[in-house]
Amino acid sequence: MNKNTVYDCTIIKLDKHHSDRKGNITVVENNKDIPFEVRRTYYLYDVPSGESRGSHAHKELSQLIIAASGSFTVTLDDGNVKRTFLLNRPNQGLYVLPGIWRDLDDFSSGSVCLVLASHEYDEVDYIRDYDSFLKFKQK
């Protein structure tokens, strides 16, 4: 898991079903629309202007990060290369693999960040210190 790079992470386009009278719906199904089974779902909202979220990596957990409303940026870092993604469409998600540091910034007013995760919460899986992350990547 520590060998994943930012180039292994990608935007996944999710099916959007549109009706002129009823709006849009996007469905996400385990192991069909995304390459893992969702074991945990959470969302971030009311993030104050100028604040950041994330600033950690996971040893085993994969995520699909979706801008359910509004927009924000996600910067991924594999210890060598950084890539920044603007998320602003609810039918697209950023697939983040284990061993990738992530920072979420630039939240627009009213934005909602929906996260689908491959594992339940486990503090042992988190790497919250950047120097520890770099050591993990060198293993």
Tags for this model:
139 residues, mainly beta, five-stranded antiparallel sheet, globular, RmlC-like_jellyroll, isomerase activity, QdtA_cupin_dom, dTDP-6-deoxy-3,4-keto-hexulose isomerase
Structural notes for this entry:
Residues 8-137 form the Sugar 3,4-ketoisomerase QdtA cupin domain. Keywords: Isomerase. GO terms for molecular function: isomerase activity. The protein is mainly beta. The chain has one domain: Jelly Rolls (Sandwich). The protein contains one helix and twelve strands. The strands form three sheets. A five-stranded antiparallel beta sheet has the order 1-9-6-11-4, with no helix packed on it. The chain has a five-stranded antiparallel beta sheet with strand order 8-7-10-5-12. A two-stranded antiparallel sheet has the order 2-3. A hairpin with a 3-residue loop joins strand 2 and strand 3 (23-26). It is globular.
